[in-house]
Input
Amino acid sequence: MKVLFRVDASADVGSGHLVRCLALAQELRRHGTTCRFVGRELPDHLAASVRGQGHELQSLGATAGGPAEAVWPLSAQLDDASAVCAIDSDGWDWLVVDHYGLGADWERAARPAARRLLAIDDLGRAHACDGLLDVNEQPEAQAQYCDLLERGTTCLLGPHYALLRPEFLAARNGLVPRDGPVRRVLVFMGGMDSVNATEPVLEAIALVDRTLDVDVVIGPSHPARARIEVLAREWPSLRCLIQNSDMAQLCVAADLAVGAGGGATWERCALGLPTLALSLAPNQRAVLERSARRGQVAAPAGLALDAQSIALHLRALIANPALRHHLSSNAMAAVDARGALRVASFMQYAGISVRPALADDNEALLAWRNQPEIRTASRDPKEISRADHDHWLASLLASTQRQLLIGELDDKPVGVVRFDTDGSTAEVSIYRVQSASTVGAGPGLLRAAEAWLREHRPDVRLLRAEVLRDNLPSHRLFLDAGYSRDSTRYLKEL
Output
């Protein structure tokens, strides 16, 4: 595939948009995808990071839009979309936009630039895209987008899809929720921290316990960099790290974090790091409030950006190991660090279409069903005979209550989905054609089959799936697709 990213980063808008796009690009590149980033002028260290990870970078010139974090005027959006469409290419498969200044008008104008468009956003706005990624909402919030999106848009909602770099997934191996004493604290207030929240946090830690080991991470253009570096020389247990690229290991080493909202919240959650979180931007406040209600972070209402207030809450959190264990457990359950894999899989297999099986598919269906990997995961693992298969397929094709669908991508088969309907309920079974090119196709195949069922059998309102206890990939597939678990069954309302 070829993927074009439209994203900006600066002291005003921060670096979070770029960081999460880079995490997605890193996963896409692992599967052979070519990624190009286009945007207005990036700070030198961030431009170097894009190129250093093997991606192309193209500048659109100085920012000509509007105030940071605000929707650009229509004329500026259309000019920007025109510039993106003018980029030389023999065809982009996806255009990914992660930008608060660009909205549905930009997306409509930029459509000619790529076959499909993915919008990354967390403001609950209208979009004109093929896929919407909002990690700050929950899957049940999809209804609120009904009037904001075009028909057929796929919503990827919730921290399940948080775009984290692969080192966070690797670092989860063997981790358990934290319950020990606090000896090391990690401080990271964002890649830019233009309001300089870092210094009040360090002052608060000094008020609480100056013997704590402290790792503070700041960007190279941090407004108080010189003072923080001086402080680190005077404070023996304080270590100042500039643009550190090993955040996962810093999270693993720490017992507690103080951090800003935004994408780094999900990094800390994935590694079960109890966090005192501060809202430094309007769009962070609601997210932190929801996360706090779910017991994933400590984000006290009205927490002010001053040392005394921060110290008060920090001291209470350090003194409460049960609360820290509670936060750590809930955080790890909410974010499993596989979000980039899920989004990359969605993009790779978004083109899957399904069609009803025909009698002419008999030979292929028998061969696919008798693959050893498929039989092992089936209720009846025995190899199916020709006679039994012929009888089964003839009976199925004659039935009005059973639908057998074959999924295809670029005219090649990727898998099979069967629905056995009973009134308003249907039991679903699924398997993919076993080959290297179909690895990861399950979610896209299931989405395409569900869309077919909604169109052709609108009377079906509940899906049910039976999964063998040891079939972990299938368990993950249905959970990822929004099914709820009921013993060994999975249920989903359409």
Q: What stands out?
A: The CA atoms of residues 313 and 381 lie 57 Å apart.
